[in-house]
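Example 5.3 — DEN5B protein
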Amino acid sequence: PSFVAGENFDQSPLRRTFKSKVLAHYPQNIEWNPFDQDAVNMLCMPKGLSFRTQADNRDPQLHSFIITREDGSRTYGFVLTFYEEVTSKQICTAMQTLYQMHNAEQYSSVCASSSCSMDSLASSMDEGDATSLAKLQRYNSYDISRDTLYVSKCICLITPLPFMQACKKFLIQLYKAVTSQQPPPLPLESYIHNILYEVPLPPPGRSLKFYGVYEPIICQRPGPNELPLSDYPLREVFELLGLENLVQVFTCVLLEMQILLYSQ
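Solution (predicted structure tokens):
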């Protein structure tokens, strides 16, 4: 269980969070940009590792983060989270065991609240309670012979500048190559090596076009006399906050007030 993510054992096992870890990172070491494994792990999966079944939504999700160091320098991370099938029989068996324990605890708690024994539970509960408990157990269930178990996984790109759109397109293309039944034109390692070692940062005021896995990707860097790079779509801000809230936030910025945005 992931206690950092605020573990709640009252939740069903598929709704709980588990500890995550970095499986691999490339390159292994950069002098001017040391890899902080704990920070990247926490920022890539702030809610911890999660499991799903075929009945749950498993659409890939993209988010970003910033690591600000003591000297004020910033590093930007762009993360694509997706779900892949669990092939380990041991993990699937453990998940079913967790569900059996969870359902037994639920049964006991319902029994205790109804002041009845396990044998007389069905007869002492009214029809509505029995129906709701049955629905709850059907929803909060995992059958190893019937269900397919999936686990969350991330691929992350860490950059010195916030090229969000370019990183997003590269990660999506890389994810498609990983999950596609047809292999990509070149080995996956060649695309990763290319973006890490061969694609340079565009000079200030210039654009750069490089090739991803399937399509070309363009990123643009503002000139010295232009506004700083802001590659985040403003439309999303309006959709998330709404017009009135955004005007209020902008007013607070102009008045130099302290602003705290709280969300899930």
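Remark. The chain is about 35% helix and 15% strand.
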